[in-house]
Amino acid sequence: MILESGEVKLLLYSHYFAPRIGGVETIVSTLAHALSQLRQADGNPEFDITLVTSTPPDKFEDSQMPFRIIREPGTLTLWRLISAADVIHVAGPAFTPMLMGLLQRKPVIVEHHGFQTICPTGQLVREPDIQPCPGHFMAGEHLRCLRCSMHPRPLALFRLWIFTFLRRFLCHHVAVNIVPTAWLADQLCLPHSETVYHGIPAVSFPAPSAPGSAPRLVFIGRLVTAKGIRILLDAVGILKSKGRTCEVLVIGDGPDRNALQEHVQQTGNSEQVHFLGRLSDSEINHTLRRTDILVAPSLGGEVFGMILVENMLRGLPIVASDLGSYREVLDDAGVTFRVADAGDLALRISALFADPSVLDRLGSKARERALLFFNVENMVEKHANIYRRFASREHQV
User: Fold this and answer.
1) What average pLDDT does the segment 67-72 reach?
2) CATH superfamily of the domain spanning 8-199+375-396
3) Which pLDDT value is given to residue 3?
4) Domain boundary assignment for the chain
5) Are 273 and 298 in contact (CB under 8 A)?
6) Please, what's the b/e burial string for 23-55 (b: 16 or more CB within 10 A of its CB; e: otherwise)?
7) Model confidence at 394, in pLDDT bands (50, 70, 90)?
8) Range of lowest pLDDT (198-207, 262-271, 373-382)
9) What is the percentage of the chain residues whose pLDDT exceeds 70?
């Protein structure tokens, strides 16, 4: 339904935005750009978009965007912006815009990009052993919940814990809780939940180059413990001990890089594992032309799996840890292994390399699934329908 009264005044609130780089920033930017292109029957824009963020501009050219950007607003300014909007979309359960929107009786829509309503750290990963949390907060085991956090300051941790209750309370009263996977909806247990898969622009990638002398695996991501890169390295060692040699390309950087490089040297795998650091998009595309399998060995904290979808679009076969969100995104278009189990990962990789035809089928199926379910058009239309539904009620009041 398109409102006869004109454009829907949509306020998009995202604490993080460009020039910062990340999954939330990418999704919000893609959504805002696509919504700005939608037109009413008379050719006028359907949505008048104001994007509000706490991220400073640095050298980013806000004026080049097809929507208005307000950065680091004060409390009074944010209140006025919310007052002028028909619909409030909050990327992540940010307390202040949710509370202001509800106090002004605006339709507030929260899109969840993490576990902030069921875990003080927002990661749902148990510290310090970096394992998937069984759900201490939701189980009412709050002492265990507090003890497992990596936060070194008790008062700051207590504040995070209190805010988890407050965010959860507010999310029970918003119009819609959007989640990127049905699995996350089951974890959050919030009312008015609707699943909307993230969408990524479909692009063509260069055809794979001729296979090398040894199978090549690739890891892409931040080099932190929770991403599970050590599990992949251990799996490579297991394969080597069984006479199966392969190369590993590690794309990305992070605080664990030096320790991981030392681990590779100590295990005698320096000739097999190559740390490439941060690469540009064109460099990543070139590197992945000579790669056989993407491995995503994350230990937890994943609500969707952008890295999976990006490489499904490339037609790259994927082996991923058996997390709920990863299983939902991949379905039968990829292979999963038991979380944190290097032996099981080695077994899955070995089976794939034993039958190259399986790799070809997985790659084709992965691209087909990504194009069908994780496209921008579906994501934007489902968001737009939600906004229309509640904006029409707002205009009827």
Assistant:
1) 98
2) Glycogen Phosphorylase B; (3.40.50.2000)
3) 44
4) 8-199+375-396, 216-373
5) no
6) bbbebbbbbbbbbbeeeeeeeebbbbbbbbbeb
7) low
8) 198-207
9) 93
The amino acid that residue 376 corresponds to is: V
Residue 49 contacts residue 9 (beta carbons within 8 Å) = no
The pTM assigned to this predicted structure is 0.92
CA-to-CA distance for 136 and 146, rounded, in angstroms?
9
Going by CATH, does the domain composed of 216-373 fall within 3.40.50.2000?
Answer: yes
Residue 4 scores a pLDDT above 50: no
> How many CB atoms are located within 10 Å of the residue 243 CB?
6
Per DSSP, 292 falls in state S
The terminus-to-terminus CA distance of the chain in angstroms comes to 17
What pLDDT score does 290 carry? 84
154-171 and 95-103 helices, crossing angle to 10°: 40
Q: For the residues of 54-66, what is the DSSP string, one character each?
A: SS--TT--GGGSS
Task: Give the tokens for residue 207.
Answer: 């055809």
